[in-house]
Amino acid sequence: MKPLDCAALKSIRLIATDMDGTLTIDQKFTPQLLQAFDRLNQAGIAVLIVTGRSAGWVSGLVNYLPIVGAIAENGGLFYQGETQELLVPISDVKLHRQKLAEMFLKLRSYFPRIQESHDNAFRLTDWTFDVAGLNLEDIKKLASLCQDNGFGFTYSNVQCHIKLSEQDKARGLLKVLEKHFSQYRLEQIATVGDSPNDESLFGQFPLSIGVSNIQHYQTQLEHLPTYITTQPEGLGFCEFVDAVL
After folding, report:
1. Beta carbons within 10 angstroms of residue 238's beta carbon
2. Rounded CA gap, 207 and 210, in Å?
3. How far is Cα 162 from Cα 144, in angstroms, rounded to an integer?
């Protein structure tokens, strides 16, 4: 990972960014972040949020933030204005949720202490439980159990996700770019993140940026971002915006 290079970032016209731990500071949006969004908007640089957060949360956020759209549930759904678009092959959401619930109960038989996340009721394509209290060996065991049962697994600084094997942020983003933002070339797109569920964005996009707290997961990732900020969380994102502008 290299320090930010202003010259290399000059071509950026669209920023696809994670939310928790990347835009937030202590789990909150700040006035500094909203000012950064406004500065990008004035410069004609689009912002697209790509988060693991639930459909319910994201469908609201996309209407309040000055962004061109948002991808929820690690590549599960895309929101733009009042439009919801499914990005993964799920023909029966109710049946899919039932299967996810059964997988969660199976995981709980091995790890009785895991707790369903508060926002799980607002999800459509994945199932989440809190990452707090789990160590790396626990995470590896949970991922292996999901894989053995035909599911995918990822985690962030907030939650663990049971999902479809083919569901990730990069695949969802590439679908959205092809359909809705085909005017942007790959070298004009930057991806920003802070944790393992952002790894696909680092691997698929050459202009990838990690805020400095990505270093907590450095030994756990196969694909690291190209650049890293000196500041963590939302401060790092604002540092990146300064470099772009």
Report:
1. 22
2. 10
3. 11
